[in-house]
Design brief:
Helix content: under 10%
Largest sheet: 7 strands, mixed
Mean pLDDT: 93
Order of helices and strands: EEEEEEEEEEE
Radius of gyration: 13 Å
Low-confidence stretches: none
Strand content: over 45%
Number of strands: 11
Structural class: mainly beta
Distance between the termini: 40 Å
Oligomer: single chain
Shape: globular
Length: 127
Amino acid sequence: QVQLVESGGGSVQAGGSLRLSCATSGRPFNYYSMGWFRQAPGKEREFVARITRSGDGTFYSDSVKGRFTISRDNAKNTVYLQMNSLKPEDTAVYYCALRIANCAGVECLLPRQYSYWGQGTQVTVSS
């Protein structure tokens, strides 16, 4: 069993920043490929960012590229999502997810490619 504990959500003004954290347990952390997804009310869960097991590859949706940064600290078994220049359209519940394998290609943007999920943390950006 893999456990994920998320933190860092909150409410900010447009243009502000938040840093989300997701701590994992249950396996050596460097074995996991990690991703962040979000889901706004009435919308499907969508890909935000992902990072390879070693941390040497990062990928972002077009909507957040240049504003968000995903990173990982394998010594702390934790993945981060630094969110800068936040916009109201970023408002959503953000989910940390992990895959017990590396991943490549457009398929890695799909939620079904990830085996374990955190509980979600609310991010609200006001105009």
